Amino acid sequence: MVAAIPLLLLGVGAVGFAYVYGTIDLPPIPPLRQTTYLVDRSGRPITELHAAVNRTIIPFRRMPLHLRQAVVAVEDKRFYSHDGVDPFAIARATWADLEDGSFDQGGSTITQQYVKTVFTGSEPSLGRKIREGVMAIKLEHELTKDQILAKYLNTIYFGHGAYGV
User: Fold this and answer.
1) For 12, how many CA atoms within 13 A lie in the half-sphere containing its CB?
2) Would the pLDDT of 153 be above 90?
3) Element counts in the chain: helices (H) and strands (E)
4) Alpha-carbon dihedral 70, 71, 73, 79, rounded to 10 degrees
């Protein structure tokens, strides 16, 4: 009987995940706000206009390989091997938080961070984290890893008013 409890919990978890997965939709990806460049009739720059966001979207192929590799190494070492959510990172972060008695560790993947920035916001709640995880998995089924990384790198805040690479 005791051996059946983990199987029951696993089954309930699978049914719960299937229900949540079926009820959360991935909205269309909104266009990013960008810097406006004013040029004269010869195409020479006159000035740049940017309100709260200083961003120029660049294609993935123009992003330096070392930058892409560094971001993956720091933010999500297993980016190219998970499906949007990294159970090992979540377990590691949870264990570290339990040991420290804090909630400082991050277990979010690059895909989850992108989803948080673009769709869910940063409300500190379990419901938001669940929506974020489900949306990350769904996004990974719609886009390639390189497309996700490109969107992430064009979206994240790099400081001093600069958004994206």
Assistant:
1) 6
2) yes
3) 6, 4
4) -140
